[in-house]
Amino acid sequence: YNRLEDSAMSVPIVSLLLVLGCAIGFAGADLLRKVLSHRIHPVPLLFLLAAGMCPAFVGWWIWVDASAPSAGYWIPGLGSVLLNVVANLIFLEAVRISPLSLTIPMLSLTPVFTSLLAIPLLGERPGGLEWLGIVAVVIGAFWLNVDRSARESAVSIWGRLGRERGSVLMILVAAIWSLALPLDKLAISNSSVPVHGTILNFGVALVLAIVLLLRFEKGDLREGRQGAGLVAALVVVSVVALGLQLVAITRVWVGFVETMKRAVGSLLALLSGWLILGEQIDVQQVLAVLLMGAGVGLVLL
User: Fold this and answer.
1) Distances (CA, A) of 126 to 25, 184, 238, 293
2) Residue 116: which of 133, 134, 137 has the closest Cα?
3) Per-residue pLDDT in tens (0 to 9) along the chain, 301 residues
């Protein structure tokens, strides 16, 4: 079918609220990670986050008395675990070797990759208006994330793409994260949300624990004491965001979820920078937000 039967406007308002909730939750988690990045190194922070989320999903699993995953779960489920670990590690390498102004905008490509990958994996094929909306959100998010303080423009960033290894790596990150979401949906179809959430976080925590042990840096986890309250807040917000996302993708097409996450996340990042960090908003940013809003409107038609 050319147009999704389960597109955004054909599902109950509850499903749309789930998507908005997960988008707002991930935006809050991004803000907390940004604050904590000045206190805790990335790998131990990711480990503490994944390990901290496990008990919540285990409790959810026990509360709903969910069944163990079926045999069809393990390939997409473990595939999502591996992709999330690899994507996070590549992300850290990308921002290590290249400026944020040249790397973060590349994550704006995630909705396009997600929608493309969902066609062969899930049979979810957006129609013409949905594609137009997705592209509008991607362009707006990319434009919004261009760092004017670094004197970079959207054109110059793309022009330097082949020469900037971190930017290329970040495009790879966007592609990997895009593949993980359809795999999450396949995994849940063979288990349940709390079961997959438990296995996903436990798997990520286990791999990162191995990475920490191999690094032989005993002070890594002790860094968490410097921001224990913020780490706890990050865990709570991330549990809510991930839980809502995993429920949402069982109700609507994954490209819509990723598009809304990118649009809402970019807007809230702009507002938090303005209200909390005192950053100025310019005409380019306003136009980018309007373009993303138009894109979301097209996706909802």
Assistant:
1) 25, 19, 28, 18
2) 134
3) 334 444 444 546 888 899 899 989 988 887 788 778 777 777 888 899 999 999 999 999 999 998 889 999 999 999 999 999 898 888 878 877 776 566 777 777 888 888 888 888 888 888 788 888 888 888 887 776 666 555 555 556 556 555 667 778 888 988 998 899 999 999 999 999 999 999 999 999 999 888 888 875 555 556 556 678 888 999 999 999 999 999 999 988 888 888 888 888 778 877 776 777 666 777 777 787 788 788 877 776 6
- pTM for the predicted model, two decimal places: 0.82
Among candidate residues 95, 101, 98, the one with its CA nearest the CA of residue 156: 101
* Residues sharing a CB contact under 8 Å with residue 221, sequence separation 6 or more, in sequence order: 44, 47, 48, 212
Determine the Cα–Cα distance for residues 251 and 163; give it in Å rounded to an integer.
41
